[in-house]
Protein backbone atom coordinates (compact mmCIF):
# COMPACT_ATOMS: atom_id res chain seq x y z
CA UNK A 1 0.00 0.00 0.00
CA UNK A 2 1.37 3.42 -0.96
CA UNK A 3 0.40 6.77 0.57
CA UNK A 4 0.78 10.31 -0.65
CA UNK A 5 2.74 12.70 1.56
CA UNK A 6 -0.44 14.57 2.51
CA UNK A 7 -2.23 11.37 3.55
CA UNK A 8 0.76 10.33 5.62
CA UNK A 9 0.59 13.69 7.44
CA UNK A 10 -3.13 13.12 8.05
CA UNK A 11 -2.46 9.71 9.58
CA UNK A 12 0.32 11.02 11.83
CA UNK A 13 -1.94 13.86 12.93
CA UNK A 14 -4.77 11.48 13.78
CA UNK A 15 -2.44 9.27 15.85
CA UNK A 16 -1.10 12.29 17.73
CA UNK A 17 -4.63 13.50 18.59
CA UNK A 18 -5.61 10.06 19.92
CA UNK A 19 -2.46 9.80 22.03
CA UNK A 20 -2.67 13.35 23.39
CA UNK A 21 -6.44 13.32 23.83
CA UNK A 22 -6.53 16.90 22.63
CA UNK A 23 -6.48 18.76 19.33
CA UNK A 24 -4.67 21.68 20.95
CA UNK A 25 -1.87 19.59 22.46
CA UNK A 26 -1.48 17.55 19.28
CA UNK A 27 -1.28 20.73 17.21
CA UNK A 28 1.40 22.08 19.54
CA UNK A 29 3.50 18.92 19.24
CA UNK A 30 3.16 18.88 15.46
CA UNK A 31 3.78 22.64 15.16
CA UNK A 32 0.61 23.25 13.17
CA UNK A 33 -2.64 25.05 13.95
CA UNK A 34 -5.63 23.31 15.58
CA UNK A 35 -7.74 24.41 12.59
CA UNK A 36 -5.40 22.51 10.28
CA UNK A 37 -5.79 19.40 12.41
CA UNK A 38 -9.55 19.76 12.27
CA UNK A 39 -9.36 19.98 8.47
CA UNK A 40 -7.17 16.85 8.31
CA UNK A 41 -9.61 14.84 10.40
CA UNK A 42 -12.59 15.99 8.33
CA UNK A 43 -10.78 14.87 5.17
CA UNK A 44 -10.01 11.46 6.69
CA UNK A 45 -13.63 11.04 7.78
CA UNK A 46 -14.82 12.04 4.33
CA UNK A 47 -12.45 9.61 2.61
CA UNK A 48 -13.23 6.63 4.84
CA UNK A 49 -16.95 7.36 5.43
CA UNK A 50 -16.99 7.07 9.21
CA UNK A 51 -16.51 9.31 12.24
CA UNK A 52 -13.17 9.18 14.06
CA UNK A 53 -14.06 11.28 17.09
CA UNK A 54 -17.06 12.39 19.08
CA UNK A 55 -16.29 15.97 20.18
CA UNK A 56 -17.84 18.06 22.92
CA UNK A 57 -16.88 21.50 24.17
CA UNK A 58 -14.75 19.89 26.90
CA UNK A 59 -13.41 16.62 25.50
CA UNK A 60 -12.95 14.31 22.54
CA UNK A 61 -13.65 10.60 22.45
CA UNK A 62 -12.45 8.15 19.83
CA UNK A 63 -15.30 6.27 18.15
CA UNK A 64 -15.31 2.47 17.86
CA UNK A 65 -14.41 2.76 14.18
CA UNK A 66 -11.76 5.34 15.06
CA UNK A 67 -10.19 2.97 17.59
CA UNK A 68 -9.93 0.18 15.01
CA UNK A 69 -8.55 2.67 12.49
CA UNK A 70 -6.00 3.91 15.04
CA UNK A 71 -4.63 0.40 15.72
CA UNK A 72 -4.20 -0.33 12.01
CA UNK A 73 -2.67 3.01 11.10
CA UNK A 74 -0.41 3.05 14.16
CA UNK A 75 1.06 -0.28 13.08
CA UNK A 76 1.78 1.10 9.59
CA UNK A 77 3.27 4.36 10.85
CA UNK A 78 5.43 2.54 13.41
CA UNK A 79 6.79 0.37 10.59
CA UNK A 80 7.46 3.52 8.58
CA UNK A 81 9.48 4.96 11.45
CA UNK A 82 11.40 1.68 11.71
CA UNK A 83 12.30 1.96 8.04
CA UNK A 84 13.37 5.55 8.53
CA UNK A 85 15.54 4.58 11.47
CA UNK A 86 17.22 1.74 9.60
CA UNK A 87 17.94 3.95 6.60
CA UNK A 88 19.64 6.35 9.00
CA UNK A 89 21.71 3.72 10.81
CA UNK A 90 25.44 3.34 10.34
CA UNK A 91 26.19 1.55 7.04
CA UNK A 92 28.02 -1.18 8.94
CA UNK A 93 24.65 -2.34 10.28
CA UNK A 94 23.74 -3.80 6.89
CA UNK A 95 23.84 -7.55 7.33
CA UNK A 96 22.51 -10.83 5.95
CA UNK A 97 22.90 -12.61 2.62
CA UNK A 98 22.81 -11.23 -0.92
CA UNK A 99 22.41 -13.72 -3.78
CA UNK A 100 23.61 -12.58 -7.21
CA UNK A 101 23.49 -14.38 -10.57
CA UNK A 102 25.51 -13.28 -13.60
CA UNK A 103 27.05 -14.50 -16.82
CA UNK A 104 30.73 -15.36 -16.49
CA UNK A 105 32.16 -12.50 -18.55
CA UNK A 106 29.87 -9.86 -17.07
CA UNK A 107 30.87 -11.05 -13.60
CA UNK A 108 34.59 -10.78 -14.33
CA UNK A 109 34.30 -7.23 -15.66
CA UNK A 110 31.68 -5.71 -13.37
CA UNK A 111 30.53 -7.99 -10.53
CA UNK A 112 33.81 -9.17 -9.01
CA UNK A 113 35.16 -5.60 -8.65
CA UNK A 114 31.79 -4.61 -7.17
CA UNK A 115 31.99 -7.40 -4.58
CA UNK A 116 35.45 -6.24 -3.54
CA UNK A 117 34.20 -2.70 -2.92
CA UNK A 118 30.92 -3.86 -1.39
CA UNK A 119 32.66 -6.11 1.14
CA UNK A 120 34.79 -3.21 2.37
CA UNK A 121 31.73 -1.01 2.83
CA UNK A 122 29.37 -3.66 4.25
CA UNK A 123 31.43 -6.42 5.86
CA UNK A 124 28.40 -7.94 7.62
CA UNK A 125 26.70 -8.88 4.32
CA UNK A 126 27.59 -12.24 2.80
CA UNK A 127 27.51 -12.06 -1.01
CA UNK A 128 26.72 -15.33 -2.78
CA UNK A 129 27.63 -15.13 -6.47
CA UNK A 130 26.68 -17.76 -9.03
CA UNK A 131 28.13 -17.35 -12.51
CA UNK A 132 26.87 -19.31 -15.48
CA UNK A 133 26.57 -18.51 -19.17
CA UNK A 134 23.34 -20.49 -19.32
CA UNK A 135 21.15 -17.70 -17.98
CA UNK A 136 18.08 -19.95 -17.81
CA UNK A 137 19.69 -21.69 -14.83
CA UNK A 138 18.68 -18.83 -12.58
CA UNK A 139 15.03 -19.91 -12.75
CA UNK A 140 15.73 -22.85 -10.47
CA UNK A 141 16.81 -20.61 -7.59
CA UNK A 142 15.77 -17.37 -5.96
CA UNK A 143 18.29 -14.59 -6.48
CA UNK A 144 18.17 -11.04 -5.20
CA UNK A 145 19.79 -9.64 -8.36
CA UNK A 146 20.32 -11.14 -11.83
CA UNK A 147 22.41 -9.59 -14.61
CA UNK A 148 21.73 -10.41 -18.26
CA UNK A 149 19.68 -9.78 -21.36
CA UNK A 150 16.07 -8.75 -21.87
CA UNK A 151 13.22 -11.17 -22.32
CA UNK A 152 14.57 -14.25 -20.53
CA UNK A 153 13.48 -13.66 -16.96
CA UNK A 154 10.33 -14.28 -15.00
CA UNK A 155 7.75 -11.57 -14.44
CA UNK A 156 8.34 -11.27 -10.69
CA UNK A 157 11.68 -9.57 -11.39
CA UNK A 158 11.92 -5.83 -11.97
CA UNK A 159 14.25 -4.95 -14.83
CA UNK A 160 16.51 -1.92 -15.13
CA UNK A 161 18.51 -1.07 -18.23
CA UNK A 162 22.25 -0.79 -17.60
CA UNK A 163 23.60 -0.08 -21.08
CA UNK A 164 23.25 -0.82 -24.77
CA UNK A 165 25.66 -3.01 -26.68
CA UNK A 166 25.69 -5.03 -29.91
CA UNK A 167 27.13 -8.19 -31.38
CA UNK A 168 30.42 -7.83 -33.23
CA UNK A 169 31.81 -10.14 -35.92
CA UNK A 170 35.58 -10.24 -35.51
CA UNK A 171 38.79 -12.26 -35.62
CA UNK A 172 42.52 -11.71 -35.22
CA UNK A 173 44.57 -9.91 -37.84
CA UNK A 174 46.51 -13.15 -38.47
CA UNK A 175 43.32 -15.11 -39.09
CA UNK A 176 42.14 -12.61 -41.71
CA UNK A 177 45.61 -12.49 -43.30
CA UNK A 178 45.57 -16.28 -43.63
CA UNK A 179 41.93 -16.74 -44.64
CA UNK A 180 40.72 -13.39 -46.02
CA UNK A 181 37.92 -11.20 -44.71
CA UNK A 182 34.30 -12.16 -45.39
CA UNK A 183 32.13 -9.39 -46.82
CA UNK A 184 28.78 -11.19 -46.82
CA UNK A 185 27.05 -14.32 -45.53
CA UNK A 186 28.13 -16.31 -48.59
CA UNK A 187 31.79 -15.52 -47.85
CA UNK A 188 31.30 -16.60 -44.26
CA UNK A 189 30.63 -20.16 -45.45
CA UNK A 190 34.33 -20.47 -46.21
CA UNK A 191 35.43 -19.68 -42.66
CA UNK A 192 35.57 -21.25 -39.22
CA UNK A 193 32.91 -19.73 -36.98
CA UNK A 194 33.06 -19.87 -33.19
CA UNK A 195 29.62 -19.49 -31.57
CA UNK A 196 28.11 -19.63 -28.11
CA UNK A 197 25.98 -22.73 -27.65
CA UNK A 198 23.64 -21.02 -25.18
CA UNK A 199 22.47 -18.44 -27.69
CA UNK A 200 19.08 -19.05 -29.30
CA UNK A 201 19.21 -21.41 -32.28
CA UNK A 202 17.55 -18.81 -34.48
CA UNK A 203 20.53 -16.52 -33.85
CA UNK A 204 23.29 -19.03 -34.59
CA UNK A 205 21.46 -20.50 -37.58
CA UNK A 206 21.61 -17.17 -39.40
CA UNK A 207 25.31 -17.77 -39.93
CA UNK A 208 26.66 -20.67 -42.03
CA UNK A 209 30.29 -21.73 -42.02
CA UNK A 210 32.44 -24.56 -43.33
CA UNK A 211 33.33 -25.37 -39.75
CA UNK A 212 31.58 -24.39 -36.54
CA UNK A 213 32.97 -24.55 -33.03
CA UNK A 214 30.33 -24.29 -30.29
CA UNK A 215 31.40 -23.42 -26.75
CA UNK A 216 29.47 -22.40 -23.63
CA UNK A 217 31.84 -19.68 -22.38
CA UNK A 218 32.49 -16.26 -23.90
CA UNK A 219 36.00 -16.25 -22.42
CA UNK A 220 36.84 -19.43 -24.35
CA UNK A 221 35.42 -17.87 -27.53
CA UNK A 222 37.69 -14.89 -27.05
CA UNK A 223 40.73 -17.08 -26.36
CA UNK A 224 40.12 -19.10 -29.53
CA UNK A 225 39.80 -15.92 -31.57
CA UNK A 226 43.04 -14.49 -30.17
CA UNK A 227 44.74 -17.77 -31.13
CA UNK A 228 43.56 -17.15 -34.74
CA UNK A 229 41.40 -20.27 -34.83
CA UNK A 230 38.27 -18.62 -36.19
CA UNK A 231 35.75 -15.78 -36.34
CA UNK A 232 33.62 -15.00 -33.29
CA UNK A 233 30.30 -13.22 -32.87
CA UNK A 234 30.36 -11.67 -29.42
CA UNK A 235 29.10 -8.73 -27.37
CA UNK A 236 31.11 -5.62 -28.12
CA UNK A 237 31.59 -4.57 -24.50
CA UNK A 238 33.41 -7.86 -23.82
CA UNK A 239 36.09 -7.20 -26.42
CA UNK A 240 36.26 -3.40 -26.65
CA UNK A 241 39.83 -3.31 -25.35
CA UNK A 242 40.95 -5.90 -27.91
CA UNK A 243 39.38 -3.89 -30.72
CA UNK A 244 41.05 -0.71 -29.46
CA UNK A 245 44.46 -2.43 -29.40
CA UNK A 246 43.91 -4.06 -32.84
CA UNK A 247 44.28 -7.56 -31.39
CA UNK A 248 40.88 -8.24 -32.91
CA UNK A 249 39.54 -6.77 -36.15
CA UNK A 250 35.83 -6.14 -36.69
CA UNK A 251 34.16 -6.92 -40.01
CA UNK A 252 30.72 -5.90 -41.23
CA UNK A 253 28.77 -8.14 -43.57
CA UNK A 254 26.91 -6.23 -46.26
CA UNK A 255 23.79 -8.41 -46.14
CA UNK A 256 23.15 -8.60 -42.42
CA UNK A 257 22.63 -6.07 -39.67
CA UNK A 258 23.24 -6.85 -36.00
CA UNK A 259 20.77 -4.86 -33.93
CA UNK A 260 21.64 -3.18 -30.63
CA UNK A 261 21.07 -5.21 -27.47
CA UNK A 262 20.18 -3.95 -24.01
CA UNK A 263 21.92 -5.34 -20.94
CA UNK A 264 19.75 -5.31 -17.82
CA UNK A 265 19.80 -5.92 -14.13
CA UNK A 266 16.83 -7.78 -12.68
CA UNK A 267 15.96 -7.62 -9.02
CA UNK A 268 13.31 -8.83 -6.68
CA UNK A 269 11.05 -6.10 -5.37
CA UNK A 270 12.98 -4.19 -2.74
CA UNK A 271 12.25 -4.98 0.86
CA UNK A 272 12.65 -1.43 2.06
CA UNK A 273 13.74 -2.32 5.59
CA UNK A 274 17.12 -3.25 4.12
CA UNK A 275 19.32 -1.73 1.45
CA UNK A 276 21.52 -4.67 0.49
CA UNK A 277 20.28 -4.92 -3.10
CA UNK A 278 20.15 -1.19 -3.74
CA UNK A 279 23.70 -0.52 -2.54
CA UNK A 280 25.15 -3.41 -4.54
CA UNK A 281 23.35 -2.31 -7.71
CA UNK A 282 24.64 1.24 -7.27
CA UNK A 283 28.24 -0.01 -7.18
CA UNK A 284 27.76 -2.18 -10.28
CA UNK A 285 26.17 0.74 -12.16
CA UNK A 286 29.11 2.94 -11.20
CA UNK A 287 31.52 0.29 -12.54
CA UNK A 288 29.57 0.11 -15.79
CA UNK A 289 29.79 3.88 -16.30
CA UNK A 290 33.51 3.84 -15.55
CA UNK A 291 34.31 0.92 -17.86
CA UNK A 292 32.27 1.73 -20.94
CA UNK A 293 33.46 4.39 -23.37
CA UNK A 294 29.90 5.10 -24.53
List the helices and strands and how they pair.
Elements: H1 5-20, H2 23-30, H3 34-48, E1 53-55, E2 60-62, H4 64-88, E3 96-102, H5 104-121, E4 125-131, E5 145-149, E6 158-171, H6 173-179, H7 185-188, E7 192-196, H8 201-204, E8 211-215, H9 218-226, E9 231-235, H10 236-244, E10 249-251, E11 260-267, H11 276-291
Parallel strand pairs: 3-4, 3-5, 7-8, 7-9
Antiparallel strand pairs: 1-2, 5-11, 6-9, 6-10, 6-11
Helix pairs in contact: 1-2, 1-3, 1-4, 2-3, 5-11
How would you concisely characterize the structure shown here?
The protein is built from eleven helices and eleven strands. The protein has 294 residues and is of the alpha/beta class. Strands 3, 4, 5, 6, 7, 8, 9, 10 and 11 form a nine-stranded mixed β-sheet that branches. Strands 1-2 form a two-stranded antiparallel sheet.
Architecture overview:
- This protein has 294 residues and is of the alpha/beta class.
- The protein has 11 helices and 11 strands.
- The protein has helices at 5-20, 23-30, 34-48, 64-88, 104-121, 173-179, 185-188, 201-204, 218-226, 236-244, 276-291; strands at residues 53-55, 60-62, 96-102, 125-131, 145-149, 158-171, 192-196, 211-215, 231-235, 249-251, 260-267.
- Strands 3, 4, 5, 6, 7, 8, 9, 10 and 11 form a 9-stranded mixed β-sheet that branches. Strands 1-2 form a two-stranded antiparallel ribbon.
- A hairpin with a 4-residue loop joins strand 1 (53-55) and strand 2.
- Helix 1 crosses helix 3 and helix 1 crosses helix 4.
- The mean pLDDT is 83.
